[in-house]
């Protein structure tokens, strides 16, 4: 008989903002936002004190300041965030080899078989949270369950510094009560569409047949059908295949001349090359992204027989794509460049379960 996996999802609490408050005592207990306060600035993340006012990540800084007049903007320190992330990932590796990072501040861990000979996934989650707090001074929230979907949702249930366990016998009832917006993988647009069809909770979703969901949502229909039944067979994959490397810049002032565009793109090319080199990445396709002052966006791509592994090659084709793009006097707000169509690499394996 196949045993169930035991999955933990660890998600750091307001990661960037919490580090800034930790390192700057005068910011503790205050509403802060990491990002730029300029007219075109965006909130990267914010403290829980700011969230009480409705401020959230990806929000315009102007809107954030309107909602929270006392909001303090803090310049990001990405080198510090990255160093702390490495600390946290090192802690994870003391408990299991099966770690799937989703971003700099969250990851799935499969602890079905683990390195501390602990039979309870819940106890492992508590130990990890304590280690993170002791070693970094930061709090994390954890979700514990038998699949990734449930663990991911559970980690968000009692933030900050919470832990939520969804046991197999509780899973379907747990999902049925969930508002559709809480489902991992259902964004605002999809949620609004579901509402139009009378789907507001996991229970509503579960009442719909597979053929109906497929008709309404295409390939995602099967995913929604499975999630409504708490079914998720995806493994925790400890080595992701990187699909692309890129960089982009949103400019404080719109670019209006060809010279400005070429000069700014050159800087982005340098950054992309450094990232390609650092990741030892090999891709065949280069893509230019241009966003205009009215927020309309275009992309242009070029695929070559070789690899984009040298700066000269990246520069040659990036500039070519830019010059081939008829921009005239259009004001450019953002330029981006990415390398994709990666060299194929190997994949990896799986595991089993015990008590929660």
From TrEMBL:
Its EC number is 2.7.7.7. Mg(2+) binds at residues 11, 105. It is an enzyme of class 2 (transferase). One of its GO terms (molecular function) is damaged DNA binding. The active site is at residue 106. It catalyses: DNA(n) + a 2'-deoxyribonucleoside 5'-triphosphate = DNA(n+1) + diphosphate. It comes from Acetobacteroides hydrogenigenes. It is found in: Cytoplasm. Its cofactor is Mg(2+). HAMAP family: DNApol_IV. Belongs to the DNA polymerase type-Y family. Residues 7-187 form the UmuC domain. The record marks 16 as: Substrate discrimination. Binds 2 magnesium ions per subunit. CDD domains: PolY_Pol_IV_kappa. GO terms for biological process: DNA repair; DNA-templated DNA replication; error-prone translesion synthesis; SOS response. This is DNA polymerase IV. Monomer. Keywords: Cytoplasm, DNA damage, DNA repair, DNA replication, DNA-binding, DNA-directed DNA polymerase, Magnesium, Metal-binding, Mutator protein, Nucleotidyltransferase, Transferase. InterPro entries: DNA/RNA_pol_sf, DNA_pol_Y-fam_lit_finger_sf, DNA_pol_Y-fam_little_finger, DNA_polymerase-Y, DNApol_IV, PolY_HhH_motif, Rev_trsase/Diguanyl_cyclase, UmuC. GO terms for cellular component: cytosol. Poorly processive, error-prone DNA polymerase involved in untargeted mutagenesis. Copies undamaged DNA at stalled replication forks, which arise in vivo from mismatched or misaligned primer ends. These misaligned primers can be extended by PolIV. Exhibits no 3'-5' exonuclease (proofreading) activity. May be involved in translesional synthesis, in conjunction with the beta clamp from PolIII. The keyword Nucleotide-binding does not apply.
